[in-house]
User: Fold this.
Amino acid sequence: LARGGVMEIGAHTLTHPALPALSPPEQEREIRDGAAALEAILGHPVRGFSYPHGRYTDETVRIVREAGFAYACAGVPSKGAALDPLTLGRIGVSDCDGDGLLAMLKGRARVG
Assistant:
């Protein structure tokens, strides 16, 4: 997948904990060590992150930002007026083909 040029593989943490339940140092270890392990496998830096269980706090976002990620996906987007690339929302995608995916995206967001 990583070499195919179609998909980008992003980090998720080392052991998939609910990050808000951890102390800031524990969150940092999970985030940084998870990224380092993935980068060692892929052989290149990882730009994206996904919050386990879609959950985060302001402190979690700060740690992700300081870890150097360009963007991060959450369960729901941030509630702020400006779109923060470190709290992007995501949608569940069912088993479908490309046309089905496009129809799903058009029903939830502006596409094309």
Q: What stands out?
A: The beta strands are 48-50, 71-73.
